[in-house]
Amino acid sequence: xxxxxxxxxxxxxxxxxxxxxxxxxxxxxxxxxxxxxxxxxxxxxxxxxxxxxxxxxxxxxxxxxxxxxxxxxxxxxxxxxxxxxxxxxxxxxxxxxxxxxxxxxxxxxxxxxxxxxxxxxxxxxxxxxxxxxxxxxxxxxxxxxxxxxxxxxxxxxxxxxxxxxxxxxxxxxxxxxxxxxxxxxxxxx
Length: 189
Prior knowledge:
By secondary structure, this protein is mainly α. 42% of the residues lie in helices and 3% in strands. It has one domain. The protein is built from 7 helices and 2 strands, in the order H-E-H-H-H-H-H-H-E. The termini are far apart.
């Protein structure tokens, strides 16, 4: 069973992120509305056509990831936020992605006739990320598979343990995925 990161959490890359916490709540609520009262008070978050209104759990999980990543980039990216790449701005959004995907069962409802909800949707990559998170290696996964030049390695990464787990799971040729990237668009000058 996993737990939400907090300020006392000493695992790599785990420090309180108030902006991402609020964003996570909005994303997990499944509101489907991407015009927010921030970051620029009225700016719009833009995703590929149809993504914001597509009820597919895979699509909505990736929209939540994209929103979290873009917001982190705005918070930390200075004059060129869309070009900001950091470990924190990849780990936090991947955590949002996993939580959104893992929570999909709780959002399914029976149909109008009271019949049980259909079985949960499957996605090989997102199911793998849940296993990575449940094994306690999401920070190591981000570092190993998604690291960008210039990232500073966080303390406490468990490289050897992750390599052993990765070998047991058959991930030698694994390739990470990123499916939806949105951006913020100014709506006022």
